[in-house]
Amino acid sequence: MIKTFIVVLSPDSSLTPSMLAERAAQMGGIDYKETCYGLLVEGEEDKVRAALEEMRAMDPKKVFYKQRGYRIGDERICRAKRGGGPRPGYHMLSSEREVLKNVSKALQGGVEEIPAETPKTKLGVEKLRKVIEEEGGKD
Amino acid sequence: MGKIRIFVDSSDELGGQQYKYIAEKSVEDLGLGGSIDSIEMLIRVEEPLFIIVIRYKEVTGKKTLGDASYIDSRKNGIRITLSSEIFLGDALKALWSKYGRDRVEQIGRLEIFVSGADPEEVKGIGLSEKGYDLDSRINELATRIIPEGFRVRSSTKKKGMIAIIASEDPIREDWRELARRLEENTHA
């Protein structure tokens, strides 16, 4: 069954969409379209999955993919055919892409431990007096 | 550059000639002269469609200079005759780092002279760590030739052959048929 996938590069990846396209061409037997954020890949599911794994192997923690509901150049969402307008689904993809940096950091295990919050306590009289004195005030 | 057959079937004659020139220059720039058998292009500007079929000699397992060349002793040194132009860059790099630029001289398109070197030692010099990746170079060649804006592409890879259909629009079935016919023509 023909399936289409979106491949998105994390913004901090050293790869470029054209490098992904080159790998897709080397695999053969699939259709692909280079985009600004990565690649659209289409073809028989087993071939596409194999190509996706190859691409992911190029930078395992920074190449992401998900299935796309429309085929490459689908007229229902094609701006050229619809007479312009916003790119359907792009705002979502754009916001998802923004968080990929953090996702890849988490996958690399580089997340710093969050220090525990210090419990709130009441200000002691002595400490309050000291503060007032330091500020030049009087009792 | 070896004898590379470049065929262009274009609906725009002048454009077709230009693409033939681009293909020739790209082969030259990438030093692939000895590896390519033929390049066939089908250009239909009105569709828009660009099909390229590249046939090449597959090169594998050439990890040392001894594998990739014929070495014979001369009076004051040795003469290395490479089996293909594609090894030239790696061979010169390896020889320069071992013997220095003063002792290494390229005397022909495929020939290098190294003064005062031992043939056995030269045979064992490694060309590159992972061997020569011709596939990637052929792919780069195709990418250089295909028009930049034709971003929707479909590739077919067989032994010693790569065919890429490129367009601005989704790839149509009749275009795939054209590409298949082109693959057969090149083979004949």
Please provide a written account of the structure.
The complex is a heterodimer of chains A (139) and B (188). With 139 residues, chain A is α+β, with helices and mostly antiparallel strands. Chain A has five helices and four strands, in the order βαββαβααα. Chain A has a four-stranded antiparallel sheet, with helices on one face. In chain A, a hairpin with a 3-residue loop joins strand 2 (30-34) and strand 3. In chain A, helix 1 crosses helix 2. The mean pLDDT of chain A is 89. Chain B has 188 residues and is of the alpha+beta class. Chain B folds into two domains: 5-58 and 133-187, no CATH class; 65-123, no CATH class. Helix content of chain B is 35%, strand content 30%. Chain B has helices at 13-29, 65-68, 88-99, 119-123, 134-145, 173-187, and strands at residues 5-10, 36-44, 49-56, 69-73, 77-82, 104-106, 111-115, 152-158, 161-167. In chain B, the strands form two sheets. Chain B has a five-stranded mixed sheet, sandwiched between helices. The longest helix of chain B is centred in the N-terminal third of the chain and has 17 residues, at 13-29. Chain B is elongated, with a radius of gyration of 20 Å. The mean pLDDT of chain B is 86. The chains are: A alpha+beta (139), B alpha+beta (188). At the A-B interface, helix 1 and strand 2 of A face helix 5 and strand 8 of B.
Helix count of chain B, per DSSP? Answer: 6
CA gyration radius of chain B, whole angstroms: 20 Å
Count of distinct strands of chain A: 4
Global shape of chain A: elongated
CATH topology of chain A: Alpha-Beta Plaits
**Strand residue content of chain A:** 15-25%
Count of strand segments of chain B? 9
Specify the structural class of chain A: alpha+beta
Based on the structure, what is the oligomeric state of the protein chains? heterodimer
Euclidean distance between termini CA atoms of chain A: 82 Å
In DSSP terms (H or I, runs of 4 or more residues), the helix count of chain A works out at 5
Spatial strand arrangement across the major sheet of chain B: 1-2-3-9-8
Architecture per CATH nomenclature, i.e. the level-2 architecture of chain A: 2-Layer Sandwich
Largest sheet of chain A: 4 strands, antiparallel
Overall helicity of chain A: 40-55%
Shape of chain B: elongated
The domain tally of chain A reads 1
